[in-house]
Amino acid sequence: MLVSALLTSLLINSGLCVLFFTLYSILRKQPSNYEVYMPRLLAEGESNTSSIFNLERLIPSPDWVKTAWQLTEDDLLSSSGLDAVVFMRLINFSLRVFLFAGVIGVFVLLPINCSGNQLQYVDFTDLSNNSLDVFTISNVNNGSSKLWIHFVAVYLVTIFVCCLLYYEYRYISQRRTDYFLSSKPQPHQFTILVRSIPVSAGSGVSEKVDSFFREYHPSTYLSHIVVRRTNKLQSLINDAKKLYTRLIHLQSDPNQQKYKRSSCFGLFGRKVNLVDHYEKKLEDIEENVRLEQSEVSLAGEEVRSAFVSFKSRYGAAVALHLQQSTNPTHWVTEQAPEPHDVYWPFFSSSFLRRWISKLVVILACILLTVLFLIPVVVVQGLTNLNQLEVWFPFLTSVLTITFVSQVITGYLPSLILLLFLKMVPPVMEFLSSIQGYISNSDIQKSACSKVLWFTIWNIFFATVFSGSVLYKVSLFLDPKNIPSRLAVAVPAQASFFIAYVVTSGWTSTSSELFRIFPLLWSLIKRPFTASRDTELEVPGIPYHSHTPRILFFVLLGINYFFLAPLILPFLLVYLCLGYIIYRNQFINVYAPQYETAGKFWPIVHNSMIFSLVLMHAIAVGIFTLKKLSLASTLVFPLPVLTLLFNEYCRKRFLPNFIAYPAESLIRKDRQDENDPTMPEFLDELISFYQDPALMPIHYSGSSDRLNSPLLSSVHQAQV
Amino acid sequence: MLVSALLTSLLINSGLCVLFFTLYSILRKQPSNYEVYMPRLLAEGESNTSSIFNLERLIPSPDWVKTAWQLTEDDLLSSSGLDAVVFMRLINFSLRVFLFAGVIGVFVLLPINCSGNQLQYVDFTDLSNNSLDVFTISNVNNGSSKLWIHFVAVYLVTIFVCCLLYYEYRYISQRRTDYFLSSKPQPHQFTILVRSIPVSAGSGVSEKVDSFFREYHPSTYLSHIVVRRTNKLQSLINDAKKLYTRLIHLQSDPNQQKYKRSSCFGLFGRKVNLVDHYEKKLEDIEENVRLEQSEVSLAGEEVRSAFVSFKSRYGAAVALHLQQSTNPTHWVTEQAPEPHDVYWPFFSSSFLRRWISKLVVILACILLTVLFLIPVVVVQGLTNLNQLEVWFPFLTSVLTITFVSQVITGYLPSLILLLFLKMVPPVMEFLSSIQGYISNSDIQKSACSKVLWFTIWNIFFATVFSGSVLYKVSLFLDPKNIPSRLAVAVPAQASFFIAYVVTSGWTSTSSELFRIFPLLWSLIKRPFTASRDTELEVPGIPYHSHTPRILFFVLLGINYFFLAPLILPFLLVYLCLGYIIYRNQFINVYAPQYETAGKFWPIVHNSMIFSLVLMHAIAVGIFTLKKLSLASTLVFPLPVLTLLFNEYCRKRFLPNFIAYPAESLIRKDRQDENDPTMPEFLDELISFYQDPALMPIHYSGSSDRLNSPLLSSVHQAQV
């Protein structure tokens, strides 16, 4: 790829970014877009919803940048929880890494690469006609002693990243403990989920649970609630809920048309009072729900799982950590998620069934990864103009136009890839959800790892090797030669990945700000629905699609910083954009849906370690290729030390991300002893884990609708 | 190797076995050998030590075989503990597997192999001149449909072994629970070891432990004892102990010479009363010990570890399973071993130091494994007569003698290998002991795994590939082709391994019966020492050398049963010998040194699974080689299913082998509530974990010497 192609891509994307920023600055001020750009503020009733028109509304203003910039970590913690803090620290961490690597890369390595002439001399008179490869390590002369500077850079960056990782892990671990110690009593701290309860023929699950815990945990056991199959009920209740919201809006909004004609597209027929009509319908559904509820409660719809609550956090932890039964596959205990985080639809019961479904999902993931290679290979063909002309000869004339060819090589491939990748997070989330996780947060965490490895495999490895695979399939299955193959293939794709950072990275971040799909969706549905017909839903940030994306760019940065330092400025721009934009979104758009208290960080840590080791493998290969075998030998200790460092961190910090230690639990329990509200809290503790589908509903004819049990329980759970 | 060579080896070894059996039957009846052949009975005072000579003593009698045969599992359990039962069940298990495989192998596969003519027709007129290879699968014609019978055999044996493994795991798991539930209160059930205790400058370890557990486990904490560095003390005490035993014997034996001349080889000089002389010396040492003891107790010789005891088993388990501190590398808890099982010499304290020493030991093991290949390769050269003649031309004349060449090819290689291997278990035990394990049982368990993998790697893989490595080094580093390389190399070594079973297996078992080294040692030292000068030490069975040996033969059996079924009869003889001999040794020789309650079984299980998967890899290779690619494809599900089965067993049974479940612990604690001896037991609980080196000693001038605290504490601990 030529420099000019990169410049074209750069121009397009900068333009897009500026456009998005400007549009956002204007559109966010239009009241009709509030539910797209500040649903969170809207839900909290904090936005100024005055719809008075003034000129200021049409002038783009950057005040939101200032607000986002000034947000402190503590503010973020109190408003969006520890997970948001961890997410922002990831960006912060990456910024620091690439500032350090960027200084080394741009001011030391880049001049060295340019000064070589292995490929060609740099043509300083017409920079844009140079191939991007002259800025990579490939241009340094073979065996040149200047490569030792690259070697030192590899060591320096590894040490820097490891130190930073250590401090970050320690900091977040500390934050997690502080968060726990300062938290109010929460139901999930006192509760565990017990699965695979062995049931003999005559007795029910509930009696069994009660007798077991009364026998073996008499001093701490409080109560329990058995999980039931409620899939059918749930859909009924959803219908009722929709109807109810519609009804509320009808009643509260005086401008709303309250009558419709009963037939023929609302044109003819008798006028019907809409409110009465809906009330009638709602009553019918509620009757159905009640019937179904009593059926579920009576009949054998019990799942062999139960939420069991204890009088203290310590009691719950003891029951959690000790193997309960002589058969370890019975009475399997698990931390209970937050009540509003429970994923009800899928409660597969038996130990064996969950285990098998897990295996099936793993298999499905592997299959998906393999099948995904096909579109990626096709897309990569597009970067290769000659290939394209061979496949589609009729395009030859078009492709000779410089601009077209530049767009195709610099922009199109990344965009197509981006669209394909958009589909991956939801698919992975679905796969995780049928894997047997019991909470949305676990599902997203698992999906996060899946998406990450998927991205690394399908974007990085497939791109790096596909150019080669086309003519070197036979060498692909030879693990010993991977470093040398990486050394050949990875620098060759430097220009693709630089373009990828610009197109995919910049565009995805600014489209995140602009919220292009929600905006389109809102524009489309606006003419068809009444303005407040549907309840405003504040979205949660989908960590499982955003975290892997950032981690992947970090992986690119770490691997290319010494091969093609030119990637670093673009990455820094990407991270700066992300820094501001995500802060803004946390303030205005996303509300926390759950609180894992930083459990995403171990995924980040593992990904960083993997990036480092991959970088070392490439370094070994490249120094061998560049005929500096001493350097390639001296790189060997690095991956070993990095892995040992990782092992140490696993022992030192990871346990704190799995469960809280006895020390914290007991200290917290003692604090509560003086709390006068505790008895009340413990009394209603287990009711938090009542399946929402089984709560009595009485929307219809209810005088004080906003305090209906369903809504209030949801409200309670979120406190 | 020709059949005749195997027959020669068979003859020699059968002769040796018969000789050993006969000699044993005679020698065991001589009172002077009682301490070699029945130390256990002697120590228990059950042996008939009458030294009246009669003719019967010179006639070999097989009555011990009958006694060993009649021993029931419950008898074995009560006399030698669950570990011995598990060991015997391993032999039992192997017998059942090879009876099943043997019927298939000898009556179905062997005739098929002989009927082929891929290598040569079987010369039935002169069987002994046939190569052993005609009995292997290599002789079946390529692509022959008869190979499907081998395929079915592979499936049948895998299913049979897996079923048996499942039932055995379940049975032993059940036995373990029963054993726990029927056991008397034991100190290690109530105690945990706490390591890496964080100590601030001013305070001691002891106060820290006390305040920590009083704070966080107030209701269950009982007491604690801090571990101290006592290496120097231990050697002093050993001296005192030796002197004391000598003194006791002097006093108790009226025939003993009680005087010696004070100088010049006891010929001239003043007569000295030996008893007084020893008493004096003993007093000096004891004075030293007391000085050193007070020094250790006062000065900062505290290790940052402590044994902490609790009022109930459940309390100890809770403290064990919960992470105690917010820093997971502090207050690291571990199950306490039995008091007499504690390995005192090495108590490295800090988390980091133990971790590093573990890494160093792993590295040392790998190095040892690699360096060991050199003698093995040399030894394997001996089987190759042509090779030998090339290396040592002067031997040519000798090697032409049929008998010599047969001995060399059939017998010598295995014998040399055997001697080399004798050194491995002690070395591995030493490596495990510096790895930071705190009990002899853990050390032996770890050494057991090490020796097993060492044996598999250095005997199986090195033998299989060394013949090939000599001319095919380049192919060695190619993991993808391992099945096909195994398929070529493994059958080629069939004759070596058949000979190996006969020489190494048979000889090692019968020399185990004959106890050749202890016998020689006893014969050598007898003229130099007074008959009862040293205390009789009852040995414990070294599981870490016996278990891996049996497991290795099982691996050979499983891998060769369909390649060279001829190995199976020899293996069955080996196992039958082992069955009788080990039972006899458990009755007469070995006393239990510790009780892990069957924790060796998971090692056995893993080894079996590995054997199966290796067998499948070979099967894949061999069916490809034999041009029956459909069969080789159809074998693929087997290793996957076997590994899944293993994974299921890990989840279903393994947790029970790591710790006891809450259910059992609480049931046991409730039983004890009614036990009137419990308060007394709890009172002296922690004193069991007093380092023996720190106990007050007063041998000298003690009136009732046999009740000296040292001996009585040892006695107590063994109860």
From TrEMBL, chains A, B:
Q: How does it sit in the membrane?
A: Multi-pass membrane protein
Native organism: Prunus avium
| Identification of the protein by name | CSC1-like protein At1g69450
Coiled-coil residue windows: 275-302
Membrane-spanning intervals of the chain = 6-27, 93-112, 147-167, 359-382, 394-421, 451-470, 550-582, 603-622, 628-645
Q: Which UniProt keywords apply?
A: Calcium, Coiled coil, Ion channel, Ion transport, Membrane, Transmembrane, Transmembrane helix, Transport
Any one Gene Ontology MF annotation carried by this entry is: calcium-activated cation channel activity
> The organism sits in which domain of life?
Eukaryota
What family does the entry list?
Belongs to the CSC1 (TC 1.A.17) family.
Q: Which residues form the CSC1/OSCA1-like 7TM region domain?
A: 358-623
Protein's cellular compartments: Membrane
Family annotation (Pfam families): PHM7_cyt, RSN1_7TM, RSN1_TM
Which GO cellular component terms are attached?
plasma membrane
List each copy of the CSC1/OSCA1-like N-terminal transmembrane domain by range. Answer: 5-168
